[in-house]
Design goal:
The complex is a heterodimer of chains A (81) and B (457). Chain A is an all-alpha fold and 81 residues long. Chain A has a single domain, classed as ACP-like (Non-ribosomal Peptide Synthetase Peptidyl Carrier Protein, Chain A, Orthogonal Bundle). Chain A contains four helices and no strands. Chain A has helices at residues 2-18, 33-37, 41-55, 70-78. Chain A is globular. In chain A, 30% of the residues are buried. With 457 residues, chain B is α+β, with helices and mostly antiparallel strands. Chain B has 13 helices and 19 strands. Chain B has helices at 92-98, 105-120, 122-142, 157-166, 185-198, 201-220, 225-231, 236-254, 267-277, 288-300, 347-363, 368-372, 436-450; strands at residues 2-5, 15-21, 28-29, 34-40, 43-48, 53-58, 65-67, 71-77, 87-88, 257-265, 308-311, 314-317, 323-328, 334-339, 366-367, 376-380, 399-403, 407-413, 416-430. In chain B, the strands form four sheets. In chain B, strands 10, 13, 14, 16, 17, 18 and 19 form a seven-stranded mixed sheet that branches. A five-stranded mixed sheet of chain B has the order 3-6-8-1-9. A five-stranded mixed sheet of chain B has the order 7-2-4-5-15. In chain B, a hairpin with a 2-residue loop joins strand 4 and strand 5 (43-48). In chain B, helix 10 packs across helix 11 (347-363) and helix 10 (288-300) crosses helix 13 (436-450). The chains are: A mainly alpha (81), B alpha+beta (457). The A-B interface holds A 16-22, 34-35, 38, 40-42, 45-46, 48-49, 52, 58-62 and B 156-158, 160-162, 273-274, 277-278, 281-283, 285, 287, 289, 328, 330-331, 354-355, 358-359, 382-384.
Chain lengths: 81, 457
């Protein structure tokens, strides 16, 4: 559980580094991340790059539909670390 | 001697603030060097110099807000004969409006007034220059001795946001504690703490009282509301909205648009990209947008009637395709960044350019030529946007493309119903310059190039 929380905090921090204007507090972890925070494809690519650098987990293009929400991204990374 | 002036980044820009000098007096500069950062409603833009020479004197101070065309520095040209007469660099606003044949009469008049006023004031400017030169020198001497010319000022997005919240000008900080002296969040917090300690409480109370009074007067005096509003300087976001409003209104008023659209199958493009991207880290992957941009830029080389400027009742096609990418700013509004010579770039290079420019558009640091040079524009609402977009031409350009979101659809290919990923590409073009027939051929050419994506990478 602590690991999940730590990953969630990490991802939120990485999102804020990329898009400081977003309201991360009001993000529903089960909702579509890009839709809710208005992140474009470049932002998303930067997020994946940052996640890869921080966790050593590289999310392949074919797995993009598995990391659409904050929750699913946390689960994806957790099961691979 | 050449006098460099406050540049214009659009016909609606009246003033610019000299945020930071990147050169000092006596410094040699080459064509393309960044000499200053200008704060505009379009964000922080880096000003380039277009000649080789030496900065003779700086005529404006950092933080100074100046009219377009106002002298900001004197440049001694490399090729200059010392005896040659002083000349003044044509304010860039003239170029922009000059290429703007159908500029509004009032804007035209303002431009002419600027030119006349600039020309008439050359001698006056020389006198004032001496005074300002002294001021500029004082300013420079007050700066740190180890101030480095051309030192870029980096700031993290989080620091920028916090500074905005606190109403703190991060450009006033010499350097930060991040990599390469970048200003980071802790620098902003530290600067704020210093400010809080040094600022007096009564002053804050007075400001609060004043703002409350203003709020009250706005609520109570509804009749005098417009007056109160005119006295308040518009925010950068409001100024940008005004600029967009002026541009699109003018475009719709003056340009007879016609609209075409074509659904393009992206299956081959996506297959090609999935192979290309398979083993690459996210930052090296190519997005399908880059392929579409590449196809558009290359197609335009054989359709010159869609790539250039309409001025003075005449169309001038551009030999180069400087593809303008409309970038949405999260704080509101948009900015068009030009990808120079996009027709000569492959999708990999285009992807790098797009990523770099989107980042700089949002964080500051686009260059003057990137903001001014686009010969045609692409508006892309992204893969979460709408199915299609009908765009408004950005004058004096004559065409704009709109890219909808790629979506899966049942499609008939070789008499079979298949699942295809479709993207709608629209073209809005100026009927004074081209006809629907050639516009349709252009869209078909783009489609054709996207069916052989390996040639675009």
């Amino acid at each position: 559980m602590n690991k999940k929380l730590a990953l969630q905090t990490l991802i939120c921090r990485l999102i804020l580094d990329i898009a400081p204007e977003v309201d991360i507090e009001s993000l529903d972890p089960s909702e579509d991340l890009r839709e809710e925070l208005d992140l474009d494809s470049i932002d998303f690519m930067k997020l994946l790059e940052a996640v890869s650098l921080e966790t050593s987990i590289t999310i392949s293009e074919s797995d993009y539909d598995k990391v659409q929400s904050l929750q699913s991204m946390v689960n994806y990374i957790e099961t691979r670390t | 001697m050449k006098i460099l002036t406050m540049p214009s980044f659009g016909s609606d820009m009246a003033t610019g603030t000299l945020a930071q000098w990147h050169v000092k007096e006596g410094q040699k500069v080459s064509k393309g060097n960044i000499i200053a950062s200008i704060d505009t409603m379009k964000g922080l833009i880096d000003m380039e110099v277009f000649d080789n020479g030496t900065i003779d004197s700086l005529l404006a101070s950092e933080g100074e807000e100046l009219d377009i065309g106002a002298p900001i520095a004197q440049l001694r040209l490399l090729s200059e004969n010392k005896a040659s007469a002083s000349n003044i660099e044509k304010p860039i606003v003239v170029n922009i409006l000059g290429t703007d044949a159908d500029a509004d009469t009032d804007i035209d008049a303002i431009a002419k007034a600027n030119i006349n006023s600039t020309a008439n004031n050359v001698s006056q400017s020389k006198q004032e220059a001496n005074t300002k030169k002294e001021e500029a020198r004082t300013e420079l001497s007050e700066q740190s001795q180890d101030a480095q010319p051309n030192k870029p000022l980096f700031v993290s997005p989080a620091a920028r946001k916090r500074a905005l919240e606190l109403g703190l000008d991060w450009r006033q900080l010499e350097h930060g504690h991040g990599p390469a002296g970048a200003i980071i969040l802790q620098d902003i917090e530290a600067a704020q703490n210093t400010n809080v300690q040094s600022s007096s409480q009564p002053e804050n109370s007075l400001q609060l009282e004043k703002s409350l009074q203003l709020e009250k007067s706005l609520q109570l005096k509804t009749v005098s509301q417009p007056k109160a509003i005119t006295e308040t300087k518009p925010t950068p976001a409001e100024m940008m909205r005004q600029a967009i409003s002026a541009n699109v209104s003018r475009s719709k008023r003056e340009i007879p648009h016609y609209y075409l659209q074509l659904d393009v199958v992206l299956n081959k493009a996506l297959d090609c990209l999935s192979i290309h991207n398979a083993n690459l880290p996210p930052s090296k992957r190519i997005l399908v947008n880059a392929l579409v941009y590449c196809a558009i830029a290359r197609s335009l080389t054989t359709f010159p009637a869609f790539n250039g400027f309409y001025n003075d009742g005449q169309y001038h096609a551009s030999d180069e395709v400087h593809l303008g990418n409309a970038i949405s700013l999260r704080t509101g509004g948009l900015i068009i960044a030009s990808i120079h010579n996009a027709h000569r770039l492959g999708a990999v290079e285009l992807m790098d350019k797009i990523t770099d420019q989107v980042t700089r558009a949002r964080e500051g640091g686009l260059t003057m030529s990137e903001v001014q040079d686009a010969t045609v524009t692409v508006s892309n609402l992204g893969d979460r946007g709408s199915d299609s977009i009908q765009s408004i031409i950005f004058p004096p350009q004559v065409a704009i493309f709109g890219i909808g979101r790629p979506r899966k659809m049942p499609w008939i290919i070789d008499d079979e119903i298949v699942c295809a990923t479709i993207v709608n590409i629209s073209l809005a073009a100026d009927h004074r310059v081209s006809d629907g027939h050639s516009g349709a051929r252009l869209l078909n050419k783009i489609n054709k190039l996207l069916q052989t994506p390996e040639k675009l990478i």
